[in-house]
Amino acid sequence: MMQGSLTIPDPDADLRRSLRRHRLLATGMLGGMAGLLVGTYFMPAGYWTDLLQASAKAGVVGGLADWFAVTALFRHPLGIPIPHTAIVPNQKERLGRALGRFVSSHVFTETELRRVIAQLDLARIVQKFLADPAASRPAAEALAASMPKLLASLEDGRARKLLVRLLPRIVSGPAGARLVARVLRAFVASGRHQEVFSLAIGQLKVLLTAREESLRTVIEQRIRAEGGAVIGWLAGATVAKRVLAAINNELGKVEPEDSDLRAAFAEWLGHEIERLETDPERAAAIGRVLREALAHPSVAVWLLDVWGRLRAALLADAARPDGRTVTLLSGLFANAGALLADDPAAREKLNRSVEGVLLRLLPSAQAQLSDFIAGVVGNWDAKSAADKIELRVGADLQYVRINGTLVGFLAGGALFALLSAVFGRVAG
Asked: Which residues form the signal peptide (predicted)?
Protein backbone atom coordinates (compact mmCIF):
# COMPACT_ATOMS: atom_id res chain seq x y z
CA MET A 1 0.00 0.00 0.00
CA MET A 2 1.44 3.40 -1.06
CA GLN A 3 0.86 6.79 0.57
CA GLY A 4 2.88 9.52 -1.15
CA SER A 5 6.45 8.23 -1.30
CA LEU A 6 6.05 5.99 1.75
CA THR A 7 5.20 2.30 1.57
CA ILE A 8 2.80 1.30 4.34
CA PRO A 9 2.81 -2.46 4.94
CA ASP A 10 -0.55 -4.20 4.77
CA PRO A 11 -1.36 -5.37 8.33
CA ASP A 12 -3.58 -8.12 6.91
CA ALA A 13 -1.04 -9.46 4.41
CA ASP A 14 -0.61 -12.77 6.28
CA LEU A 15 -4.37 -13.26 6.48
CA ARG A 16 -4.74 -12.57 2.74
CA ARG A 17 -2.08 -15.13 1.86
CA SER A 18 -3.69 -17.73 4.15
CA LEU A 19 -7.15 -17.12 2.65
CA ARG A 20 -5.77 -17.35 -0.89
CA ARG A 21 -3.99 -20.62 -0.11
CA HIS A 22 -7.07 -22.23 1.45
CA ARG A 23 -9.33 -20.98 -1.34
CA LEU A 24 -7.03 -22.50 -3.98
CA LEU A 25 -7.07 -25.79 -2.09
CA ALA A 26 -10.88 -25.91 -1.94
CA THR A 27 -11.26 -24.85 -5.58
CA GLY A 28 -8.62 -27.35 -6.65
CA MET A 29 -10.47 -30.15 -4.90
CA LEU A 30 -13.74 -29.15 -6.62
CA GLY A 31 -11.92 -29.01 -9.98
CA GLY A 32 -10.38 -32.41 -9.33
CA MET A 33 -13.80 -33.84 -8.52
CA ALA A 34 -15.20 -32.38 -11.79
CA GLY A 35 -12.27 -33.89 -13.71
CA LEU A 36 -12.95 -37.26 -12.09
CA LEU A 37 -16.62 -37.00 -13.15
CA VAL A 38 -15.69 -36.29 -16.76
CA GLY A 39 -13.15 -39.10 -16.69
CA THR A 40 -15.78 -41.68 -15.73
CA TYR A 41 -17.48 -41.20 -19.11
CA PHE A 42 -14.37 -42.57 -20.80
CA MET A 43 -14.13 -45.61 -18.54
CA PRO A 44 -15.59 -49.07 -19.37
CA ALA A 45 -19.24 -49.43 -18.38
CA GLY A 46 -19.88 -51.42 -15.24
CA TYR A 47 -20.92 -51.29 -11.59
CA TRP A 48 -17.70 -49.72 -10.30
CA THR A 49 -17.65 -47.09 -13.00
CA ASP A 50 -21.25 -46.21 -12.19
CA LEU A 51 -20.40 -46.09 -8.46
CA LEU A 52 -17.43 -43.77 -9.08
CA GLN A 53 -19.50 -41.59 -11.42
CA ALA A 54 -22.35 -41.23 -8.89
CA SER A 55 -19.86 -40.38 -6.16
CA ALA A 56 -18.13 -37.76 -8.33
CA LYS A 57 -21.48 -36.19 -9.29
CA ALA A 58 -22.49 -35.87 -5.65
CA GLY A 59 -19.03 -34.47 -4.78
CA VAL A 60 -19.31 -31.81 -7.50
CA VAL A 61 -22.83 -30.88 -6.36
CA GLY A 62 -21.77 -30.72 -2.70
CA GLY A 63 -18.70 -28.61 -3.51
CA LEU A 64 -20.72 -26.22 -5.70
CA ALA A 65 -23.44 -25.87 -3.05
CA ASP A 66 -20.95 -25.02 -0.31
CA TRP A 67 -19.03 -22.66 -2.63
CA PHE A 68 -22.31 -20.83 -3.24
CA ALA A 69 -23.14 -20.72 0.48
CA VAL A 70 -19.69 -19.43 1.53
CA THR A 71 -19.50 -16.89 -1.30
CA ALA A 72 -23.05 -15.64 -0.65
CA LEU A 73 -21.99 -14.54 2.84
CA PHE A 74 -19.63 -11.88 1.49
CA ARG A 75 -20.66 -11.08 -2.10
CA HIS A 76 -23.01 -11.96 -4.95
CA PRO A 77 -21.89 -15.28 -6.52
CA LEU A 78 -20.44 -14.58 -10.01
CA GLY A 79 -21.62 -10.99 -9.55
CA ILE A 80 -25.26 -12.00 -10.05
CA PRO A 81 -27.55 -10.10 -7.56
CA ILE A 82 -29.35 -13.21 -6.35
CA PRO A 83 -31.72 -12.46 -3.42
CA HIS A 84 -30.38 -13.21 0.07
CA THR A 85 -26.75 -13.15 -1.03
CA ALA A 86 -23.96 -10.69 -0.03
CA ILE A 87 -25.34 -11.05 3.49
CA VAL A 88 -22.50 -9.36 5.41
CA PRO A 89 -22.38 -6.14 3.32
CA ASN A 90 -26.17 -5.82 3.24
CA GLN A 91 -26.71 -6.63 6.93
CA LYS A 92 -23.65 -5.05 8.54
CA GLU A 93 -25.70 -2.74 10.80
CA ARG A 94 -27.73 -5.66 12.14
CA LEU A 95 -24.60 -7.79 12.49
CA GLY A 96 -22.87 -4.95 14.32
CA ARG A 97 -25.70 -4.64 16.82
CA ALA A 98 -25.81 -8.40 17.32
CA LEU A 99 -22.03 -8.54 17.81
CA GLY A 100 -22.15 -5.65 20.27
CA ARG A 101 -24.91 -7.31 22.31
CA PHE A 102 -23.02 -10.62 22.31
CA VAL A 103 -19.75 -9.07 23.52
CA SER A 104 -21.41 -6.96 26.21
CA SER A 105 -23.68 -9.78 27.46
CA HIS A 106 -21.43 -12.85 27.17
CA VAL A 107 -17.84 -11.57 27.21
CA PHE A 108 -17.80 -8.36 29.23
CA THR A 109 -19.74 -9.85 32.17
CA GLU A 110 -19.63 -9.54 35.95
CA THR A 111 -18.22 -13.07 36.29
CA GLU A 112 -15.44 -12.39 33.80
CA LEU A 113 -14.69 -9.03 35.42
CA ARG A 114 -14.32 -10.63 38.85
CA ARG A 115 -12.09 -13.36 37.38
CA VAL A 116 -9.81 -10.86 35.63
CA ILE A 117 -9.52 -8.65 38.73
CA ALA A 118 -8.65 -11.70 40.85
CA GLN A 119 -5.94 -12.72 38.37
CA LEU A 120 -4.51 -9.21 38.03
CA ASP A 121 -4.28 -8.48 41.80
CA LEU A 122 -4.51 -4.72 41.23
CA ALA A 123 -3.35 -3.96 44.77
CA ARG A 124 -0.06 -5.76 44.11
CA ILE A 125 0.40 -3.82 40.85
CA VAL A 126 -0.24 -0.53 42.70
CA GLN A 127 2.11 -1.59 45.49
CA LYS A 128 4.96 -2.34 43.06
CA PHE A 129 4.37 0.97 41.29
CA LEU A 130 4.40 2.98 44.53
CA ALA A 131 7.47 1.15 45.86
CA ASP A 132 9.50 1.91 42.70
CA PRO A 133 10.98 5.44 42.92
CA ALA A 134 11.69 5.48 39.18
CA ALA A 135 7.97 5.04 38.51
CA SER A 136 6.42 6.97 41.42
CA ARG A 137 8.68 10.04 41.20
CA PRO A 138 7.33 11.18 37.78
CA ALA A 139 3.81 10.58 39.08
CA ALA A 140 4.57 12.75 42.12
CA GLU A 141 5.97 15.50 39.87
CA ALA A 142 2.91 15.38 37.62
CA LEU A 143 0.56 15.51 40.60
CA ALA A 144 2.48 18.42 42.11
CA ALA A 145 2.37 20.30 38.80
CA SER A 146 -1.43 19.94 38.72
CA MET A 147 -1.77 21.16 42.30
CA PRO A 148 -2.25 24.88 41.46
CA LYS A 149 -5.16 24.10 39.11
CA LEU A 150 -6.68 21.78 41.68
CA LEU A 151 -6.40 24.37 44.45
CA ALA A 152 -7.78 27.08 42.16
CA SER A 153 -10.89 24.99 41.57
CA LEU A 154 -11.37 24.37 45.30
CA GLU A 155 -13.28 26.95 47.31
CA ASP A 156 -11.55 27.87 50.56
CA GLY A 157 -14.71 27.64 52.67
CA ARG A 158 -15.70 24.26 51.34
CA ALA A 159 -12.15 22.90 51.60
CA ARG A 160 -11.84 24.03 55.20
CA LYS A 161 -15.17 22.50 56.18
CA LEU A 162 -14.15 19.26 54.49
CA LEU A 163 -10.81 19.29 56.32
CA VAL A 164 -12.48 19.85 59.69
CA ARG A 165 -15.01 17.08 58.96
CA LEU A 166 -12.65 14.47 57.53
CA LEU A 167 -9.60 14.68 59.79
CA PRO A 168 -11.39 13.50 62.97
CA ARG A 169 -12.84 10.52 61.06
CA ILE A 170 -9.48 9.58 59.57
CA VAL A 171 -7.58 9.60 62.86
CA SER A 172 -10.35 8.06 64.99
CA GLY A 173 -10.14 4.58 63.47
CA PRO A 174 -7.43 1.90 63.61
CA ALA A 175 -5.58 3.70 60.82
CA GLY A 176 -5.09 6.70 63.13
CA ALA A 177 -3.46 4.55 65.81
CA ARG A 178 -1.23 2.86 63.22
CA LEU A 179 -0.21 6.29 61.91
CA VAL A 180 0.67 7.48 65.41
CA ALA A 181 2.64 4.27 66.05
CA ARG A 182 4.52 4.64 62.76
CA VAL A 183 5.40 8.27 63.55
CA LEU A 184 6.56 7.34 67.05
CA ARG A 185 8.70 4.47 65.74
CA ALA A 186 10.41 6.82 63.30
CA PHE A 187 10.81 9.30 66.16
CA VAL A 188 12.49 6.72 68.39
CA ALA A 189 14.66 5.32 65.58
CA SER A 190 16.08 8.79 64.91
CA GLY A 191 16.71 9.50 68.63
CA ARG A 192 14.44 12.51 68.60
CA HIS A 193 12.52 11.22 71.63
CA GLN A 194 15.57 11.92 73.80
CA GLU A 195 15.75 15.46 72.41
CA VAL A 196 12.13 15.98 73.44
CA PHE A 197 12.90 14.52 76.86
CA SER A 198 15.91 16.84 77.26
CA LEU A 199 13.82 19.81 76.17
CA ALA A 200 11.15 18.95 78.75
CA ILE A 201 13.74 18.60 81.53
CA GLY A 202 15.41 21.86 80.50
CA GLN A 203 12.12 23.75 80.46
CA LEU A 204 11.22 22.32 83.86
CA LYS A 205 14.54 23.53 85.30
CA VAL A 206 14.02 26.97 83.77
CA LEU A 207 10.54 27.08 85.26
CA LEU A 208 11.80 26.06 88.71
CA THR A 209 14.55 28.71 88.57
CA ALA A 210 12.15 31.42 87.46
CA ARG A 211 9.60 30.59 90.15
CA GLU A 212 12.00 29.58 92.93
CA GLU A 213 10.98 32.42 95.27
CA SER A 214 7.26 31.81 94.86
CA LEU A 215 7.75 28.03 95.32
CA ARG A 216 9.80 28.64 98.48
CA THR A 217 7.03 30.86 99.84
CA VAL A 218 4.39 28.24 99.05
CA ILE A 219 6.41 25.49 100.80
CA GLU A 220 6.98 27.70 103.88
CA GLN A 221 3.28 28.48 104.05
CA ARG A 222 2.41 24.79 103.76
CA ILE A 223 4.81 23.89 106.61
CA ARG A 224 3.43 26.69 108.72
CA ALA A 225 -0.12 25.51 108.05
CA GLU A 226 0.70 21.91 108.99
CA GLY A 227 3.14 22.44 111.87
CA GLY A 228 2.15 25.79 113.30
CA ALA A 229 3.65 29.25 113.24
CA VAL A 230 6.66 28.37 115.43
CA ILE A 231 7.67 25.36 113.29
CA GLY A 232 7.11 27.37 110.14
CA TRP A 233 9.26 30.22 111.48
CA LEU A 234 12.08 27.91 112.61
CA ALA A 235 12.21 25.32 109.78
CA GLY A 236 10.06 26.60 106.91
CA ALA A 237 12.79 28.36 104.95
CA THR A 238 15.30 25.55 105.53
CA VAL A 239 12.91 22.81 104.41
CA ALA A 240 11.90 24.82 101.33
CA LYS A 241 15.54 25.26 100.30
CA ARG A 242 16.26 21.56 100.76
CA VAL A 243 13.18 20.50 98.77
CA LEU A 244 14.08 22.73 95.82
CA ALA A 245 17.73 21.66 96.00
CA ALA A 246 16.70 17.97 95.96
CA ILE A 247 14.47 18.54 92.94
CA ASN A 248 17.23 20.33 91.03
CA ASN A 249 19.69 17.60 92.01
CA GLU A 250 17.39 14.85 90.66
CA LEU A 251 16.81 16.79 87.46
CA GLY A 252 20.57 17.07 87.06
CA LYS A 253 20.91 13.30 87.34
CA VAL A 254 18.44 12.84 84.49
CA GLU A 255 20.40 14.96 82.00
CA PRO A 256 23.15 12.39 81.11
CA GLU A 257 22.38 10.16 78.11
CA ASP A 258 22.70 6.97 80.19
CA SER A 259 20.45 7.98 83.06
CA ASP A 260 18.00 5.39 84.39
CA LEU A 261 15.03 7.70 83.92
CA ARG A 262 15.87 8.19 80.23
CA ALA A 263 16.14 4.42 79.75
CA ALA A 264 12.84 3.94 81.54
CA PHE A 265 11.25 6.60 79.31
CA ALA A 266 12.52 4.86 76.15
CA GLU A 267 11.27 1.49 77.42
CA TRP A 268 7.85 2.92 78.25
CA LEU A 269 7.61 4.59 74.83
CA GLY A 270 8.45 1.31 73.05
CA HIS A 271 5.83 -0.51 75.09
CA GLU A 272 3.20 2.10 74.20
CA ILE A 273 4.04 1.86 70.49
CA GLU A 274 3.61 -1.91 70.63
CA ARG A 275 0.25 -1.53 72.38
CA LEU A 276 -0.91 0.91 69.71
CA GLU A 277 -0.12 -1.68 67.04
CA THR A 278 -1.53 -4.76 68.77
CA ASP A 279 -4.13 -3.69 71.32
CA PRO A 280 -7.50 -2.72 69.73
CA GLU A 281 -8.71 -1.08 72.94
CA ARG A 282 -5.60 1.09 73.16
CA ALA A 283 -5.94 2.02 69.48
CA ALA A 284 -9.59 2.92 70.02
CA ALA A 285 -8.69 5.05 73.06
CA ILE A 286 -6.05 6.96 71.09
CA GLY A 287 -8.57 7.43 68.29
CA ARG A 288 -11.11 8.91 70.72
CA VAL A 289 -8.53 11.28 72.17
CA LEU A 290 -7.47 12.45 68.70
CA ARG A 291 -11.08 12.83 67.57
CA GLU A 292 -12.03 14.87 70.63
CA ALA A 293 -8.94 17.03 70.28
CA LEU A 294 -9.58 17.76 66.60
CA ALA A 295 -13.26 18.45 67.30
CA HIS A 296 -12.41 21.15 69.85
CA PRO A 297 -13.37 24.64 68.57
CA SER A 298 -9.88 26.08 69.13
CA VAL A 299 -8.33 23.22 67.17
CA ALA A 300 -10.89 23.73 64.39
CA VAL A 301 -9.85 27.40 64.16
CA TRP A 302 -6.22 26.31 64.08
CA LEU A 303 -6.98 23.84 61.28
CA LEU A 304 -8.60 26.60 59.22
CA ASP A 305 -5.47 28.67 59.62
CA VAL A 306 -3.37 25.63 58.72
CA TRP A 307 -5.36 25.21 55.49
CA GLY A 308 -4.70 28.82 54.46
CA ARG A 309 -0.99 28.53 55.18
CA LEU A 310 -0.83 25.11 53.52
CA ARG A 311 -2.51 26.38 50.37
CA ALA A 312 -0.13 29.33 50.07
CA ALA A 313 2.89 27.09 50.65
CA LEU A 314 1.70 24.52 48.13
CA LEU A 315 1.14 27.14 45.45
CA ALA A 316 4.65 28.48 45.98
CA ASP A 317 6.32 25.07 46.12
CA ALA A 318 4.33 22.92 43.66
CA ALA A 319 6.02 24.27 40.53
CA ARG A 320 9.49 23.20 41.72
CA PRO A 321 10.55 19.67 40.62
CA ASP A 322 12.86 19.52 43.64
CA GLY A 323 10.35 21.14 45.99
CA ARG A 324 8.98 19.77 49.22
CA THR A 325 5.64 18.95 47.61
CA VAL A 326 7.24 16.47 45.21
CA THR A 327 9.37 15.05 48.02
CA LEU A 328 6.33 14.75 50.28
CA LEU A 329 4.24 13.06 47.60
CA SER A 330 7.08 10.66 46.79
CA GLY A 331 7.33 9.83 50.49
CA LEU A 332 3.57 9.30 50.72
CA PHE A 333 3.69 6.99 47.70
CA ALA A 334 6.57 5.04 49.26
CA ASN A 335 4.75 4.77 52.60
CA ALA A 336 1.57 3.63 50.86
CA GLY A 337 3.59 1.03 48.94
CA ALA A 338 5.18 -0.20 52.19
CA LEU A 339 1.75 -0.38 53.85
CA LEU A 340 0.34 -2.45 50.98
CA ALA A 341 3.40 -4.70 51.02
CA ASP A 342 3.15 -5.37 54.78
CA ASP A 343 -0.62 -5.46 55.20
CA PRO A 344 -2.54 -8.21 53.32
CA ALA A 345 -5.81 -6.82 54.69
CA ALA A 346 -5.09 -3.43 53.08
CA ARG A 347 -4.37 -5.10 49.74
CA GLU A 348 -7.58 -7.11 49.95
CA LYS A 349 -9.55 -3.99 50.86
CA LEU A 350 -8.09 -2.09 47.89
CA ASN A 351 -8.92 -4.95 45.51
CA ARG A 352 -12.47 -5.15 46.82
CA SER A 353 -12.88 -1.37 46.53
CA VAL A 354 -11.69 -1.35 42.92
CA GLU A 355 -13.90 -4.34 42.15
CA GLY A 356 -16.91 -2.61 43.71
CA VAL A 357 -16.35 0.56 41.66
CA LEU A 358 -15.95 -1.39 38.41
CA LEU A 359 -19.03 -3.52 39.10
CA ARG A 360 -21.11 -0.39 39.71
CA LEU A 361 -19.89 1.01 36.39
CA LEU A 362 -20.38 -2.30 34.54
CA PRO A 363 -24.00 -1.84 33.32
CA SER A 364 -23.21 1.55 31.81
CA ALA A 365 -19.96 0.23 30.32
CA GLN A 366 -21.78 -2.75 28.77
CA ALA A 367 -24.31 -0.47 27.08
CA GLN A 368 -21.60 1.87 25.82
CA LEU A 369 -19.46 -1.04 24.57
CA SER A 370 -22.43 -2.52 22.70
CA ASP A 371 -23.22 0.83 21.09
CA PHE A 372 -19.54 1.38 20.27
CA ILE A 373 -19.15 -1.98 18.48
CA ALA A 374 -22.44 -1.51 16.63
CA GLY A 375 -21.37 1.98 15.56
CA VAL A 376 -17.92 0.87 14.40
CA VAL A 377 -19.28 -2.04 12.34
CA GLY A 378 -22.19 0.03 11.02
CA ASN A 379 -19.84 2.78 9.83
CA TRP A 380 -17.63 0.39 7.91
CA ASP A 381 -17.79 0.57 4.13
CA ALA A 382 -19.82 -2.43 2.90
CA LYS A 383 -16.91 -3.86 0.93
CA SER A 384 -14.46 -3.17 3.76
CA ALA A 385 -16.76 -4.88 6.26
CA ALA A 386 -17.03 -7.98 4.10
CA ASP A 387 -13.28 -7.97 3.50
CA LYS A 388 -12.40 -7.61 7.21
CA ILE A 389 -14.70 -10.43 8.27
CA GLU A 390 -13.77 -12.73 5.39
CA LEU A 391 -10.05 -12.32 6.10
CA ARG A 392 -10.59 -13.54 9.65
CA VAL A 393 -13.02 -16.42 9.06
CA GLY A 394 -12.65 -17.10 5.34
CA ALA A 395 -9.81 -19.60 5.71
CA ASP A 396 -11.94 -21.73 8.06
CA LEU A 397 -14.92 -21.42 5.72
CA GLN A 398 -12.87 -22.92 2.88
CA TYR A 399 -12.81 -26.13 4.93
CA VAL A 400 -16.60 -26.08 4.69
CA ARG A 401 -16.17 -26.27 0.91
CA ILE A 402 -13.56 -29.02 1.18
CA ASN A 403 -15.72 -31.03 3.57
CA GLY A 404 -18.80 -30.48 1.38
CA THR A 405 -16.96 -31.91 -1.63
CA LEU A 406 -15.66 -34.93 0.30
CA VAL A 407 -18.92 -35.61 2.15
CA GLY A 408 -20.87 -35.28 -1.13
CA PHE A 409 -18.53 -37.78 -2.80
CA LEU A 410 -18.87 -40.31 0.03
CA ALA A 411 -22.62 -39.79 0.44
CA GLY A 412 -23.22 -40.12 -3.30
CA GLY A 413 -21.30 -43.40 -3.45
CA ALA A 414 -23.04 -44.77 -0.36
CA LEU A 415 -26.47 -43.81 -1.70
CA PHE A 416 -25.74 -45.41 -5.11
CA ALA A 417 -24.58 -48.65 -3.48
CA LEU A 418 -27.64 -48.74 -1.20
CA LEU A 419 -30.15 -48.13 -4.00
CA SER A 420 -28.40 -50.66 -6.25
CA ALA A 421 -28.58 -53.25 -3.53
CA VAL A 422 -32.29 -52.61 -2.90
CA PHE A 423 -33.66 -51.92 -6.38
CA GLY A 424 -31.04 -53.37 -8.65
CA ARG A 425 -29.09 -51.32 -11.15
CA VAL A 426 -29.90 -47.59 -10.88
CA ALA A 427 -30.11 -45.54 -14.07
CA GLY A 428 -27.20 -43.16 -14.40
From this structure: none
